[in-house]
Every structure is written in structure tokens, then in C-alpha cells.
Amino acid sequence: MTSTPSIRPVAVVTGGARGIGLAIAKWFLAHDYRVALLDIEAATLKTTETELNAPDRVLALSCDISKPDQVQTAIDLIAAKFGRIDALVNNAGVAVFKPLGETTFEEFRYVMGTNLDGAFLCSQACIPYMKKNGSGSIVNIASISGLRASTLRVAYGTSKAAIIHLTKQQAVELGTIGIRANVVAPGPVDTEMAKLVHSVAIRSDYYDTIPMNRYGTPEEIAEAVGFLCSPAASFINGQCIAVDGGFDASGVGIP
Ligand code: NAD
């Protein structure tokens, strides 16, 4: 008797060249997925692709997720190479931390264009392929800044609150056809983004206010994302999991 070889599922991870996105890509590889990485930083992406050293299972594509044509081309290429798309992690993001009065329209649009438009565009492009399978999982990466308002985050916090609602819309409209959508909202994690926008004062305040008194690691975020994409989460749809060392539960303000 012959058995049908199992088909490795395919995950698309935006912003997969480094940081949290790279940890998510590694989680998928460790769990027998094939992975497509989309990132705007072509040079970093190339280095990452070489380091992952899995040419049969990794496709790295340079793509600005805020640009509809680039997104459609990249997602179609992924589907053509791997034949299916099972999971999408909308992880790519940018941050501008400035007071409301100093945030320009261009800065606001830059953050919304990447964090929100990018997640919308990548989802829209992947959904038809998930529909073909009759299943799929979208995980959108928000932030505790999308759960609570605070100073300096008019653009960033607004984009992350919006992505949480985008997820609920996706969960309600796509649940009926077997596609689930959920959010992971990280607390502070030591990455290039944190280096850029977490001043010494913000960093010190986070250490004081997070009940576990530390930053998270990219791998800790990746575990939650992987869980939400796995069969273990088959009835979880439209939810937001804060991976934040207890910060949201504590009710204290964001520094
Ligand atoms: P990072 O800056 O290290 O990585 C972000 C990646 O996204 C980079 O590789 C970058 O090139 C890519 N990217 C940016 N704009 C893009 C675009 N237009 N198209 C394609 N790729 C683009 O940041 P990170 O800390 O790993 O952040 C990952 C996600 O986690 C982001 O959505 C971020 O908002 C969120 N997050 C981070 C923290 C934190 O403290 N680091 C906390 C909460 C949420």
C-alpha cells in the first residue's frame, strides 16, 4: 500500500529579514513549514536567506508591503513556487515616536502605510490562495501600544489599534470559510526597532513597569504566533494575545 507524502505547509512572514520576523520564520522552519520572507531591506534579506541555509524551503523576496503591485507580484510568486499558502504573519512594521504636535502628516502616513496598509494588502493577496485550501491562518502583529494610548505614539499606537480591529473584521468575514485571524501584541522586545525608538528613559520605565521586569525575546513572540497558526488553536479566531510579561494586565501606563 502506498501512502501519500505529506505536503509541507507554507507560511508567509513579512519583515522576515531580522528581529521578531526572523524568529517567526525560524519557528516555522523548525516545525516543518516552507517559508516565504518578504522584506524591504534587500541586503539584510539576502544575508538572512544565506544564514537560514534551506534553499528548498525558503523563498526570500524583496518587497515594500505598502505598495499594492509589489505585494501582489510577491504573493503570486510564492504561490507559484510552493503551490499553496497556509499562514500569513503580518509582522513588518515601522515606528515613529514623537509628540502629537511634532508628528507630520508624512510621518503618520509612513507608519500607517507600512503597519496597516501593508497588513491589509498582504492579507488581501493571500486570502484567495487560502480559500483554495479551505483553510488558513492570519496572525497580525500589533503591540501593547495598540491596546493603550500613551505619549509619543500617535502614529504607531493608532496603526496598531487599527490592526487589532482589522483582525476582528477578518475573523468575522473569513471564519465561515475556514480562515482564522488573530493578533499577537508584543510588549517591548530587544530588536533594531527598540534600539531606534526606546530612549534610555523609556527602556528604564519598561523595566520598572513590566511585572516580569525585563524585555521579551523575539523567540517568545514567535512561540505565540506559531501556536496561533497550529492545529492546537483551531477554534481561536479574532483574539488578541498580549505577550508582554504581564504589562497589559497590570494596568499601569505605557512609559
Ligand atoms: P525590526 O525593525 O527589527 O524589523 C522590522 C522588519 O520589517 C525589518 O526587517 C524591516 O526591513 C521590515 N520592514 C519595514 N518596513 C517594511 C516595508 N514597507 N515592507 C517590507 N518590510 C518592511 O522590528 P521588530 O522589533 O522585529 O518588529 C516586528 C514587529 O513587531 C513590528 O510590527 C513591530 O511594530 C512589532 N513590535 C515590536 C516591538 C519591539 O519592542 N521590538 C514591540 C511591539 C510590537
How would you describe this protein?
There is one protein chain. 47% of the residues lie in helices and 15% in strands. The chain is globular and about 50 Å long. It has 255 residues and is of the alpha/beta class. The longest helix is centred in the middle third of the chain and has 29 residues, at 105-133. Strand 5, helix 5 (154-174) and strand 6 form a beta-alpha-beta unit. The chain binds nicotinamide-adenine-dinucleotide. Residues 14-15, 17-21, 38-41, 63-66, 91-95, 114, 118, 141, 143, 186, 188-189, 191-194 line the site of nicotinamide-adenine-dinucleotide.
Produce the secondary structure layout.
Blueprint: E1 10-14, H1 19-30, E2 34-39, H2 42-52, E3 58-62, H3 68-82, E4 87-90, H4 105-133, E5 136-141, H5 154-174, E6 179-186, H6 192-197, H7 200-209, H8 218-229, E7 240-243, H9 247-250
Parallel strand pairs: 1-2, 1-4, 2-3, 4-5, 5-6, 6-7
Helix pairs in contact: 1-8, 3-4, 4-5
